[in-house]
Specification:
about 375 residues; alpha/beta; Rossmann fold; 2 domains; seven-stranded mixed β-sheet; 13 helices; about 35% helix
Length: about 375
């Protein structure tokens, strides 16, 4: 198969979909890998490392899309890429369709086969291609939240770990999944008082067992959220419903109950966000303030630490990419049920129910194409 790796052109997105090591694993199996010149530079990988791994370089994003049967990316195509996508071309990337209707309609119009990292799902409900970036984003949520709690950044001036004689900051984490767990580890390590909320009691029991003493678990409901936001200095939204929009657990009216200078970090913003007042921001302009509450809503948080993120992502995506390249997407998805769940749009039809429901579009069962 001919695989293309374009340079990411989303604002401040420095990751790349494939490391040189990943390129080597594909080329040694007889596949052709074409990488856009300088695509890996933001992550610390030079062009010569790709050519040494057996990949070939192309000078432009247009050339990569024109050449490739399968495009591997990190983030969803943006508007200037839409017309480069060919009918029946396989796109393997993060899409987060349910949060952005124009992208969904563009991919339907282009007739592409869209296989989304974020909806590849194991039998136990885990999302193997979302996990590594969720781990990065969860840890970064505390790192960034702590920074924006500083007074010059707009925050309340609280040091999360406190010092002897001064109580530590309070961190509220909505969601006890991968993001929430990693955020709790980081916040607890800094010495903050941490509360994790979730609706899954089994998950809360597990977290209560493995987390240190400065992490508490609380069942998530509106009354408990309203009570805890009044004391929190940093609130992290880490709620995910696979392939669908996240629910708004913090609403506009709740901001008035927060401490002035509270920081909200909505990691779910690329799925619509679980905080009503959040809208996507960029690393270039990461925050905005509403009612004296700082909102950090960067939709590609791991893009700020691209070396770590690119390696972590390739470690997860490569086994699936090899299957797609070796067998073609149809056979690979027949043989691999988790991979099949990654299919969102095929030949102008929406085949993932969460996406169809988000925009009132017709849903077509994926089995019609396999």
């Amino acid at each position: 198969m001919i695989i293309g790796v374009p340079k990411e052109i989303k604002n401040n997105e420095n990751r790349v979909a494939l490391t040189p090591a990943g390129a080597m694993e594909l080329t040694k199996r007889g596949h052709e890998v074409y990488v856009q010149t300088t695509a890996g530079l933001g992550s610390g990988f030079e062009d010569h490392e790709y050519t040494a791994a057996g990949a070939q370089l192309l000078p432009s994003i247009e050339a990569v899309y024109e050449k490739a049967e399968m495009i591997m990316k990190v983030k969803e195509p943006i508007e200037q890429e839409y017309n480069l996508i060919k009918k029946d071309q396989l796109l393997f990337t993060y899409f987060h369709f349910a949060s952005y209707e124009p992208l969904t309609k563009a991919m339907i119009e282009r007739g592409a086969t869209c296989l989304a990292y974020e909806t590849v799902e194991n039998p136990n409900g885990s999302l193997p291609l979302l996990v590594p970036m969720s781990e990065v984003a969860g840890r970064m949520a505390i790192q960034e939240g702590a920074k924006f709690l500083e007074k010059p950044m707009g925050g309340s001036g609280v040091l999360l770990g406190g010092v002897p004689g001064v109580e530590p900051g309070r961190v509220l984490i909505l969601g006890g999944g991968v993001v929430g767990t990693q955020a709790a580890k980081m916040a607890a390590g800094l010495g903050a008082q941490v509360t994790i909320m979730d609706i899954n009691l089994d998950r809360l029991r597990y977290l209560a067992d493995v987390m240190p003493a400065n992490v508490n678990t609380v069942y998530s409901n509106e009354m408990n959220i309203r009570r805890h936001i009044k004391q929190a200095n940093l609130i992290v939204g880490g709620v995910l419903i696979a392939g669908a929009k996240a629910p708004h657990l913090i609403t506009r009216d709740m901001l008035k109950d927060m401490i002035p200078g509270t920081v909200l970090v909505d990691v779910a913003v690329d799925q619509g966000g679980c905080i009503e007042t959040c809208k996507p921001t960029t690393h270039e302009d990461p925050i905005f303030i509403i009612d004296n509450v700082v909102h950090y809503c960067v939709a590609n948080m791991p893009g700020a630490v691209p070396y770590t993120s690119t390696i972590a992502l390739t470690n997860a995506t490569l086994p699936y990419a090899i299957q797609l390249a070796n067998k073609g997407w149809k056979q690979a998805c027949k043989d691999n049920e988790p991979l099949k769940k990654g299919l969102n749009v095929i030949d102008g039809k929406v085949v993932y129910k969460g996406v169809a429901d988000a925009f009132g579009l017709e849903f077509t069962p994926v089995e019609q194409f396999l």
